[in-house]
Amino acid sequence: MTQASIQVALDARLATLTGFADAATAWPNKPFSPVPGTAYLAPTTTVNQRPGGAGVAGFVYWEGVYRIVASFPSAKGTAALLARLDAIRTHFKRGTTLTTSDNWSLIFEVPRSGVIGRDGDWFKGFVDCPFFGTETP
Questions:
Q1: What's the number of CA atoms in the CB half-sphere (13 Å) around residue 72?
Q2: In angstroms, rounded to a whole number, what is the distance separating the alpha carbons of residues 10 and 119?
């Protein structure tokens, strides 16, 4: 498993979120400029790995957080933002399992969310989607 294969699996899952055709996504490492009046999502990933066990029976434990920041035009109020946060939490609910391109599994824990508040013309909130996986040699 690699951080790149984890990122691809997470982004692919986010891309399948339906029911919100009005929002754009600011994908990592791709140019993006918010369009005034158009909601957008911005995912980021933090990944950590550590050894588990010892010797030939050892494994690598991967854990991380996929954070999705949702930004909505302040003129739309907070209802649309809160609905989007709920939908993201459901999409990455506890027990959701993804397979990486190198054939390892990621399992999601209970997502957390919150409202960041107003940032200029935007209301912003986030969903933290914690995940883990193990890799055996």
A1: 20
A2: 26
DSSP track, 10-76:
HHHHHHT--S-TT-EE--TTS---PPTT--EEEEEEEEEEEEES-GGG-EEEEEEEEEEEEEEEGGG
Over 80: is that where the pLDDT of 70 sits? yes
If you search the block for the tokens 């993006």, which residue do you land on? Answer: 32
On the question of pLDDT at 47 being above 70, the answer is yes
Average pLDDT of the segment spanning 107-136: 90
CA distances from 95 to 102, 106, 110 (A): 20, 9, 8
pLDDT the model gives residue 64: 96
Model-level pTM? 0.88
Please identify which residue in the block is written with the tokens 């980021």: 44
Q: Give the contacts of 28 (CB within 8 A, at least 6 positions apart).
A: 7, 11, 43, 44, 45
